UniProtKB/TrEMBL annotation:
DUF7793 domain segment(s): 14-123
Protein name per Swiss-Prot or TrEMBL: DUF7793 domain-containing protein
Entry-linked InterPro entries: DUF7793
């Protein structure tokens, strides 16, 4: 089963084993954007828990209300989270997220997709 969706902030690709969100270029994510991003992801998942790969390499900024929302409400139905980053900008974004929110699920940042997928495979089992 493969499903996909797209909104003005991201492209969503879902398989049986993984949700992959690819954020669009030059984004500045605020609370409203974060709420839509999470809402669309949850519609695709339809209550099913799974690991999440977030490709944030093109994101330029995430404000604090959006980070808080993504870390709390936005973590529902996620068994493990890997950020795909491109230093220095998205490295800073993911470091702020990881440093300011207690992680209840395995969460890490990677510059290589293959390493991110290996992490999710290892830690994303239900």
């Amino acid at each position: 089963m493969k499903r996909s969706h797209e909104n003005k902030y991201a492209v969503y690709l879902m398989t049986e084993a993984l949700m992959h969100i690819i954020y669009k270029k030059d984004l500045c994510i605020d609370l409203r954007a974060a709420q839509l991003i999470v809402q669309d992801r949850m519609k695709l998942q339809n209550g099913r828990e799974m690991p999440l790969l977030c490709d944030i390499r093109e994101v330029r900024r995430v404000n604090k209300p959006a980070r808080d929302y993504l870390a709390l409400e936005g973590s529902q139905w996620i068994t493990a989270l890997a950020f795909l980053i491109d230093p220095p900008v998205t490295d800073v974004i993911s470091s702020i997220y990881l440093g300011t929110h207690a992680q209840t699920i395995p969460t890490r940042s990677f510059t290589k997709k293959s390493e991110a997928l290996a992490f999710l495979k290892k830690h994303g089992q239900q």
